[in-house]
Amino acid sequence: MSISNEVPEHPCVSPVSNQVFERRLIEKYIAENGADPISGQPLSEEQLIDIKVSHPIRPKAPSATSIPAILKSLQDEWDAVMLHSFTLRQQLQTTRQELSHALYQHDAACRVIARLTKEVTAAREALATLKPQAGLIAPQATPASQPAAVGAGGEAMEISEQIGMTPEIIQKLQDKATVLTTERKKRGKTVPEELVRAEDLGKYRQVASHAGLHSASIPGILSLDLCPTDTNKVLTGGADKNVVVFDRREEQIVATLKGHTKKVSSVIYHPAQSVVFSASPDSTIRVWSVSGGNCVQVIRAHEASVTGLSLHATGDYLLSSSEDQYWAFSDIQTGRVLTKVTDETAGCAQTEPPNLIFLTSSLHSPFKSGLSLNSPPLHYYQLTIICPIILLASF
């Protein structure tokens, strides 16, 4: 522009000559001469008018207009672009590493949260399991006189020898059968008034539900029985290998009986004594003392899983069946096997009034059941309507 003939960085206009000047240069000229450099008329700095423009692009110097200079300029710009690209790649790699680290931390945090959630759930289940055990009787060890139970590895165990049915035992069974037959004939003449009518069964409703009797980590109640003399006492056998006596009125566990090495498939409550019986696929039948909380007898009558268990009306003998295709008749006082008979179809065993008849069913029979019948009625319908309490056990 005027004075320098170059594009001004801070242009301004003189109102005297209407020329554009570099403000820095025109201010020096006015300070020395006090007049406009073009018209020579008086001019002051206050009269200058600034021009607002975007940053102008300076023309290249004449030395940069040659081909070598242009190539040098292009090379410099290329180098600058490559350096900037290298810087961006470094920043990208750093960002990727930071993102990967953050993702690993997130995954580890999720794993810790999942583990803690699982532990909290297990602790809550354990707490729920412990709540009804206020009156728990700690189980005692099996008496040293009893043989060791089958190990988890399935070692061979000693099977009790048969001592045979002595005349005294046979006479005892016959005397009990005579008494039961007499009572049965009396009941058969009239229908008991306390029987529940069929239409009343539809009115039955759930009145209580008790959780935490067995382990929450190995859920499942596989067998159930009531104490005949006190229906508030409930006997259960679970998949956790434990036998539990529960008082539903007090809502607490009376005893937890431990000793089986596999799940408990059958349980029976003795009608006159504080004794319960259990059978398991570990091939053993155990006699438990509820008051003592310990095992008093281990009956080893079978070589395979015990599938059925029934108590004789005398209260002194047990009938059992097994997958070894045998059924056995044992003395609960001594734990000895009285007699043992092979039956390829035996899957479930039952004594039938007058208790001189033993019933067995095939593993494929639709009548296979874990219920214990020591007295009439003979039919399922009658069994249902005489029960004052109906209990359901499930997983």
Automatic annotation (TrEMBL):
<dbReference type="InterPro" id="IPR003613">
    <property type="entry name" value="Ubox_domain"/>
</dbReference>
<dbReference type="InterPro" id="IPR036322">
    <property type="entry name" value="WD40_repeat_dom_sf"/>
</dbReference>
<keyword id="KW-0833">Ubl conjugation pathway</keyword>
<feature type="repeat" description="WD">
    <location>
        <begin position="257"/>
        <end position="298"/>
    </location>
</feature>
<dbReference type="GO" id="GO:0071006">
    <property type="term" value="C:U2-type catalytic step 1 spliceosome"/>
</dbReference>
<dbReference type="GO" id="GO:0006281">
    <property type="term" value="P:DNA repair"/>
</dbReference>
<feature type="domain" description="U-box">
    <location>
        <begin position="1"/>
        <end position="69"/>
    </location>
</feature>
<dbReference type="GO" id="GO:0005737">
    <property type="term" value="C:cytoplasm"/>
</dbReference>
<keyword id="KW-0508">mRNA splicing</keyword>
<dbReference type="InterPro" id="IPR015943">
    <property type="entry name" value="WD40/YVTN_repeat-like_dom_sf"/>
</dbReference>
<dbReference type="Pfam" id="PF08606">
    <property type="entry name" value="Prp19"/>
</dbReference>
<comment type="subunit">
    <text>Homotetramer.</text>
</comment>
<comment type="similarity">
    <text>Belongs to the WD repeat PRP19 family.</text>
</comment>
<comment type="function">
    <text>Ubiquitin-protein ligase which is mainly involved pre-mRNA splicing and DNA repair. Required for pre-mRNA splicing as component of the spliceosome.</text>
</comment>
<keyword id="KW-0747">Spliceosome</keyword>
<dbReference type="Pfam" id="PF00400">
    <property type="entry name" value="WD40"/>
</dbReference>
<keyword id="KW-0234">DNA repair</keyword>
<protein>
    <recommendedName>
        <fullName>Pre-mRNA-processing factor 19</fullName>
        <ecNumber>2.3.2.27</ecNumber>
    </recommendedName>
</protein>
<keyword id="KW-0539">Nucleus</keyword>
<dbReference type="GO" id="GO:0061630">
    <property type="term" value="F:ubiquitin protein ligase activity"/>
</dbReference>
<keyword id="KW-0677">Repeat</keyword>
<comment type="pathway">
    <text>Protein modification; protein ubiquitination.</text>
</comment>
<keyword id="KW-0853">WD repeat</keyword>
<keyword id="KW-0507">mRNA processing</keyword>
<dbReference type="GO" id="GO:0000398">
    <property type="term" value="P:mRNA splicing, via spliceosome"/>
</dbReference>
<dbReference type="InterPro" id="IPR055340">
    <property type="entry name" value="RING-Ubox_PRP19"/>
</dbReference>
<dbReference type="InterPro" id="IPR013915">
    <property type="entry name" value="Prp19_cc"/>
</dbReference>
<dbReference type="GO" id="GO:0000974">
    <property type="term" value="C:Prp19 complex"/>
</dbReference>
<keyword id="KW-0808">Transferase</keyword>
<dbReference type="InterPro" id="IPR038959">
    <property type="entry name" value="Prp19"/>
</dbReference>
<dbReference type="InterPro" id="IPR001680">
    <property type="entry name" value="WD40_rpt"/>
</dbReference>
<dbReference type="GO" id="GO:0070534">
    <property type="term" value="P:protein K63-linked ubiquitination"/>
</dbReference>
<keyword id="KW-0227">DNA damage</keyword>
<dbReference type="InterPro" id="IPR013083">
    <property type="entry name" value="Znf_RING/FYVE/PHD"/>
</dbReference>
